[in-house]
TrEMBL record:
A GO biological-process term: regulation of DNA-templated transcription
Keyword DNA damage tagged: no
Source domain of life: Bacteria
Source organism (scientific name): Solicola gregarius
Modified residues (4-aspartylphosphate): D54
Signal sequence annotation: none
HTH luxR-type domain ranges (all copies): 149-214
Gene Ontology MF term list: DNA binding
Domain spans labelled Response regulatory: 3-119
Protein name: Response regulator transcription factor
Length: 216
């Protein structure tokens, strides 16, 4: 079973998400929280696999809570689920360590699919959010590339860079393995090394880095 924690200050939203996820045979909602502080307590108590996280909440918002979760050993995956698709919110959520960003008008089957994919290590962004993010990256000038980011990428081996670029194109482990003629296990090993070398906590952060560097 995939254990899920739902975090939202709106009780009706939480109830709706419980109903949506309750229809999946392999998903169990283990707890609900109304803000980021309560979320942190429940993460420690229930050790969920995936957290569905609202952004704008009292006491502690979802972005701060996501960053704190990512500092824990073996943290759960976080999917930010919000009404807003502001560019800054998307960027901050992904850089804080979120593995997904979905709008609350996302169809129920897609939310269930996102939980499955993120639990398996694949990033999940709603199409509207992906389009906005890519437009923002495309509008950046080369001069905005960070020297530290370029230094991190230059430390990669040729094979590691190939895997990083494939992650940046949104390919799954299986697709990377096929395209680069290696086993899925080898792909996973390369990605683990990329997390360390690029100081990343998930695939989305790797993708952002290579996009920011203008490599994809």
């Amino acid at each position: 079973m995939i254990k899920v924690l739902i975090v939202d200050d709106d009780a009706l939203v939480r109830a709706g998400l419980v109903m949506i996820l309750g229809g999946a045979a392999d998903i169990e909602v283990v707890a609900e929280a109304g803000d980021g502080r309560e979320c942190m307590k429940l993460v420690a108590e229930h050790r969920p696999d995936v957290v569905l996280m609202d952004i704008r909440m009292p006491r502690m918002d979802g972005l701060e809570a996501t960053a704190l979760i990512e500092q824990q050993p073996s943290p759960p995956k976080v999917i930010v689920l919000t009404t807003f698709d502001a560019d800054d919110d998307v960027s901050r959520a992904l850089r804080a360590g979120a593995s997904g960003f979905l709008l609350k008008d996302t169809p129920p089957p897609t939310i269930v699919d996102a939980v499955h994919k993120v639990h398996e290590g694949e990033p999940m962004l709603s199409p509207k959010v992906t389009a906005r993010l890519m437009r923002r990256i495309a509008d950046e000038t080369p001069n905005e590339a960070d020297a530290a980011r370029e230094s991190l990428l230059s430390a990669l081996s040729e094979r590691e860079l190939e895997v990083a670029l494939a992650v940046g194109r949104g390919l799954s482990n299986a697709e990377i393995a096929t395209g680069l003629h290696m086993s899925v296990a080898t792909v996973k090993a390369h990605i683990s090394r990329l997390f360390t070398k690029l100081d990343a906590t998930n695939r989305v952060q790797i993708a952002i880095l290579v996009h920011d560097a203008g490599l994809v």
